[in-house]
Amino acid sequence: MMSKMDLNIDGETVTVDCNPDMPLLWVLRDRLGKVGTRFGCGAGLCGACTVHFDGQAVRSCQLPVGSVGDARIVTVEHLENSEIGRALQEAWLEEDVVQCGYCQSGQLMSASSLLASTPSPDDQVIDAAMAGNLCRCATYVRIRAAIRSAARKLGGE
Amino acid sequence: MAFSDSTTRRSVLKAGAAFGGLLIVSCSAESDVSDGKRLLSPKELQKRYDVNAYIRLTKKGRAYFFLPGTEMGQGISTSLAMILAEELDYPMDAVSMEQAPSNIEVYGMQSTGGSMSIRSNFDKLREVAAAARAMLVAEAAERWGDHPAACRTEAGAVYSADGRKRFAFGDLVENASGRQPPEKPQLKRKSDYKVIGVPQSRIDAKERISGKAIYGIDVSLPGMKYAALAFPPHIGGSVKSYDDKPARALAGVVDVIGLPEAVAVIADDTWTAMQARDALLVEWTEPDNKALNLKTIYDDLEAGLNEPGSVAVATEGHEASMQKAADKFAAVYRQPFLAHAALEPMNCIAHVQEKACEIWSGTQVVGDAQLATAEMLGLPAEAVTIHNYPMGGGFGRRLEIDGILTATAIARQVPYPVKMTWSRQDDIHRDYFRPAYADRIEAALNEDGRPVAWTHRIAGSSILARLMGPEFKGVDFDAVECAVEPLYKLDDHRVEFRRVETGSVRTSWWRGVGPLRSTFVLESFIDELAYKAGVDPLTYRRELLSDPRMIALLDRVAEMAGWGEPLEKGRGRGIALQHAFGSYGAMIMDVSLSEDAGLSVNKIFCAVDCGLIINPRGVEAQVQGGALFGLSAALGEGVDIEQAEIVQGNYDTYNVLRMPEAPEVSVSTIEGDEAPGGLGELGTTLSAPALVNAIYAASSLRLRKLPVREALAGLRARGE
Asked: Which chain B positions have a beta carbon within 8 Å of A102's beta carbon?
């Protein structure tokens, strides 16, 4: 059942010894102490656990760690190391997006994946890309504004 | 206030007047609660609280404020830091907030709810800060031989009378802290404010956008194990027997603990615990009423409307006014059970040792949690420490301490600390729902179609009855809030509350509480009366209002929305007004409704008057988020019950608003000199009535049942 795996997480190689069926979310949280990636629903419905899998936004609660292989996993804790990530974090502060903040790790990971593939999204594209990320405090208006603002600053017009 | 049993010790929200001062106040000790609203003098403050328990000034020039209550997204840490910075004369970036430790003697019950954080702390915090500033000034003045009144403070320093000498606060702290606090510290005048009223970004945002914020669920302790629970599928069920062999067979499973209402599996990580939980073979008791379902609950509520209730208010001439009416109009409204569905599922870490217990969790009721845990373990209160953490949303859910007590019940049976994490399904199934309600209002109208009197009966579960026990006298003062004081001029009115408990369905506080319930009904009803009279609903309301603050807000929101502009077919605007939590709100919602495209909300306009504004950015954020939180519920939220089971288990069936449905929310404020009002719940209460009124304007469909999407689907199914 247990198996040793080398994972590439936030730019580092880490070795974990666990059941390969365990979702990446719980490996991050309970085994590696990377708790910035949040648990919300366990069913890919809320987006709080979103990480990047070779640059793609994926729900880590739905991703068995055994299927990660040598993919580059990036979590919110590494987001500031990318230009898009930094621009989004700054926009999040400028727009004063955060309320309870619990979902914002996932929101930022989805937003940065969006801007990487679509540098200048309109509101409809933003809404579609972010529809999988719930914010119970309903900060959606400001998330939308922050994504628009970060896109502008990154020169995506 | 002496606490004798677990019922009366509960901090009952906003019911202070009714229960002799059992108020939720974050900075309170019981001694000043019993004094009602009288503020303690600084001397008393120091004696009873230790000024240092609230504020610590360091030699390096920083000020720390110890937050007795809880940050759950409402921004109080920022607003309270602003009040502190203002009155201390510190720059904002030198002020930090720290979570206060659990200590009933020092901080009181440390409760957070009822939109009370600013209201209950504003005066007290200013007094404490002003006292500290006066002590710093006195110290500097003495060293210079100046008169303290001739010295001034600015940005963390004291300046001498001639303006040439300066001491940074940090250099004065050590000696100043030994000085006698002034009997009556001088508070700043509003005209001198430099921080209060100036837009300020959240001081705790940075760690929340980098994954560094630690919520209760993120805490990790040496030797900690992880627990998941099997809960009964039925409402009110319990464990009959269980076989844990298949669970124990899984690698990483450490223990299985049977509780009366659940079986807990403890493992090396959360996922393994959840897998093993699913492998348990549990036989559950049969529910008391296996036929319990939402339809029969609604039937019971509506039947309750035909029974007399306990009278909350009845004016003397009510009966006569109702009898001599030129015309009458009545309507029945229905509202569903609502789940909190905060994104951080219920969780708690507990470590129980022989003579001590430690809890790590996010709670809105630190004092309650401490006392109840101590009682459960047979320990003195001071043997229990609650480490309170920011919450991934509270919305009233964490005014209940069931999660903490369940974790403690598990942890008392094992020697190591245990982190209990509920699944999303557990979180919804084991929620304490906002009660379902039915309301009936009948108005007596004059020849012009204006109401002269009305009779309003409310039927639903009573949260206060559960919390108060035998002290409950029939009227749920929370549920009837706003209903007992209608905004509109009436000669007479009568409001009754009919308690109808709904099987074993657990009910509790939910953002907006009583005003949320009442505002949907009252603002729907007044809108119906306006259309029935053939009068524009804004004009109709305005004529009947008497409070100038409310009238000014109605005018403001009408101007924002461009009320009266012609709209294309299928588009409509609805109004809602409210006065609660010490604040006023007015909303106009703009919707489109068509057969092809369905319902969409185009825009929300909201004007608020919360008296003195501490942080304009915080006000806007709370009103925006609150309005959309209310819209979420009004559009799609509702808990179904079938065969004594909760139908919804995750966000696929419990419909929380998502970004594509979220309209822009434009917020405007009217500032007054009145004491600051509460804001966390104001926006939430306005959305449902504004929405149904807008739908009526767009379509002539009057929806009296929530949620709206379900009501619309019901109409379509019947071909209406």
From this structure: 215, 342-344, 391-393
CATH topology of domain B216-287+346-421: Aldehyde Oxidoreductase; domain 4 (3.30.365)
**pLDDT at residue B504 in the model:** 85
Report whether B459 contacts B302 (CB < 8 A). Answer: yes
In this complex, is the C-beta atom of A123 within 8 Å of any C-beta atom belonging to chain B? no
Measured CA to CA, the distance from residue B326 to residue B494 in angstroms comes to 19
Q: What is the pLDDT of residue B43?
A: 46
CA distance B168 to B273: 54
> Of the candidates A42, A100, A105, which has its C-beta nearest B393's C-beta?
A100
Residues A71 and A95 in one domain: no
Amino acid at B209: I
A105 Cα to chain B: minimum distance (Å): 6
Residue B192: partners with Cβ closer than 8 Å, 6 or more residues away:
none
Interchain contact A44–B (C-beta under 8 A): no
* Distance (Å, whole) CA B155 – CA B147: 20
How far, in Å, CA of B134 to CA of B182, rounded?
7
Angle between helix axes B548-561 and B537-544 (nearest 10 degrees) is: 160
Q: Is A148 found in the same domain as A98?
A: yes
Query: Does A144 score more than 70 pLDDT?
Result: yes
Q: Tell me, yes or no, if B673 comes closer than 8 A to chain A by beta carbon.
A: no
Token couple for A106:
């996932």
Q: What is the CATH number of the domain that holds A126?
A: 1.10.150.120
Q: Evaluate the CA torsion angle A86, A90, A95, A100 in order and state its sign.
A: positive
Give chain A's domain count.
2
The confidence score (pLDDT) of residue B53 equals 64
Domain region containing A129: 79-153
Same domain, yes or no, for A58 and A121? no
Q: B667: how many CB neighbours lie within 10 A of its CB?
A: 22
Interface test with A, best of B208, B429, B628 (most A CBs within 10 A): B208
SS3 content of chain A, % helix, strand, coil (to 5): 45, 15, 40
A73 and A86 co-located in one domain: no
Domain boundary among A77, A109, A125: A77
pLDDT tens per residue across span B214-224: 999 999 999 99
CATH 3.30.365.10 fits B16-187, yes or no: yes
Give the three-state DSSP class for B114. coil
Structure token pair of residue B460:
């639903």
The ipTM value here is 0.98
> Are A27 and A43 within one domain?
yes
| Residue range B61-66: mean pLDDT, rounded | 82
Virtual CA dihedral for B203, B204, B207, B210, nearest 10 degrees? -80
- Judge whether B638 is closer than 8 Å to chain A, CB to CB: no
Specify whether A139 is located in the same domain as A89: yes
Contact between A139 and B625 using a beta-carbon 8 Å cutoff = yes
Q: Which of A77, A104, A125 is at the close of a domain?
A: A77
* Contact check, Cβ <8 Å, A141/B270: no
From chain A, pick out residues whose CB is under 8 angstroms from the CB of B276: none
Helix%, strand%, coil% for chain B, nearest 5: 35, 25, 40
- Are residues A14 and A58 part of one domain? yes
**Measured between alpha carbons, how far is B712 from B720 in angstroms, rounded to an integer?**
9
* b/e per residue B250-285 (b: at least 16 CB within 10 A): bebbbbbbebebbbbbbbbbbbbbbbbbebbebebe
The domain B294-337+433-717 having CATH identifier 3.30.365.10: the answer here is yes
Assess B176–A contact: CB distance below 8 Å, yes or no: no
Whole-number Å distance between alpha carbons of B452 and B454:
7
> What does the pLDDT read at residue A157?
53
The structural domains of chain B, with segments of one domain joined by +, span: 16-187, 216-287+346-421, 294-337+433-717
